[in-house]
Amino acid sequence: MTNKNEDLVLSQKEEEEILDEWFVNLMDVAYPNYERVGCPDPQILRDLAFHRNVSPKILDAVLTHMTECSPCCHDARSYADEYRKTTEK
Predict the structure, then answer these.
(1) Residues 6 or more apart in contact with residue 18 via CB below 8 angstroms
(2) pTM above threshold 0.90
(3) Per-residue pLDDT in tens (0 to 9) along the chain, 89 residues
């Protein structure tokens, strides 16, 4: 793969943002799950993002589901952003 901007040096944060955007776009195309089939309760996703105790069995099921569900990935990312904002104060 050739990069037209080979001399361009990205910061770690910029690289992470590019990879993050790429991942989100990939999930949206590959696993749209418009019907939200099999999605866990949003509170469970929020509990995970806020580092609250979730049983290993539920954690495994939710993470497995998220590998095939773009909406849950979006929700989990939103909750994680919310958590980060509460801890940055």
Answers:
(1) 10
(2) no
(3) 555 656 688 999 999 999 989 988 999 999 999 999 999 999 999 999 999 999 999 999 999 999 999 999 999 999 999 999 998 86
